[in-house]
Amino acid sequence: MLKHCSLVTGLILLLFSSTIIAQDFNENDDRWAKVWTNFSPNKTDYPTAEEKLPNIIANNTYLTNDVVYLISGDVYVTSGASLTIQEGTIIRGDHKNPANLIITKGSKLIAAGTKSYPIVFTSNKAAKSRNSGDWGGIIIAGSGKTNTASGTGIMEGNFNPQFSSYGGDQLNEETVILRYVRIEFSGNTTKRKKGSNGLSLYSIGSSSIIDNIMISHSGQDSFNFHGGTNNIQNLISFKANEDDYHISEGFKGNLNNIVAVRHPYITSPTGSYAIEVDGYNKSLGFTKPNDITDVTITNATLVNLSDKTNFQHTGSAIYTTNSAMTYIHKSKISGFSDVVKFDKSYTSLALIQKAFMMDNSFFNIHSEGVEVSNQVIKKSSLNILKYNRFTKNFIDVKDLFDDPQNNLAPKFKLKQSMNNYMVMQ
Question: Is residue 1 part of a domain?
């Protein structure tokens, strides 16, 4: 058991911390998440929608913030058109005819909000009556690289085949600019069991810009990446039903400053994770083994709001499948059973050590730390968590962090310095 064995003494801990883990990441600046976020969106009164968007947008279109818009059903931006949304604009998604905004391959979405005037996509229901999955979500198809056998793919969800393709060879393409955007109560499952995530990004190129995005109460995944190459920062997923961040089909890039806040009673029957990383899509195959998903995640805060009365409902924070490559750095993981779970594709300790690395991080869990299908290598696999701090025994969320359940602005700063916790070498 990781909690109760192979722990170093205080003297070695201090020596180790001064050499390997000298920096206390808990002093990170979290001011990027202030002002534009909303952790109680069901209590917010939004103006009534005044203008309905057409289901086909084939010409350049500009939405202004003096009008509240309604999207109903599937709204496609096509024919190379650009949809530009002014800062401070509110777009409401129909729950009776669940809405999706689909930016088709070759078209663009430019939604650049500001910290003071974010762009908001939310449910068309009244305050205090909204639910996860009221409407669909935002789907963006790019022409960047995806690691499938054909180099292309078809969006999940049985959308119009004419507008559903993604992928290509334009690694530097610019399909989307998303900044200071909130997406609330998306992820509808009545119309489609797959595909209507909060934000689905298909084969986006490195010139696309995505930062400061908050997705709250998604009925499916919050963020879903299918291939593409990009460095993305300042993302928040709040109480999603399914995965907070699902990364697949050969995505390459860095995610910096990401937050996932989960609740032990909000989960999918098939399993939900803060981060799920798939090396490739088995049904679509892959072009090269070297092009499998490879993501670096820095300054992540992955928290399940569990305590000793309900922690048994939680699973692993991270699930990695199909030989995916993941590096976690300078992050906090708390409230889950394990740090990481590996599927059956990791058949040896050498493969696990090659595929997953975590350092200069902190975790507070209630099981052993690593979940592996192959029981023969399970004990040795715990070594991948060395060089990280951890709690000797599981600690309730409210006792570990400053103010984690604040409805206005939760705070996930450790009450004690990271350097006060134990380390395994």
Answer: no
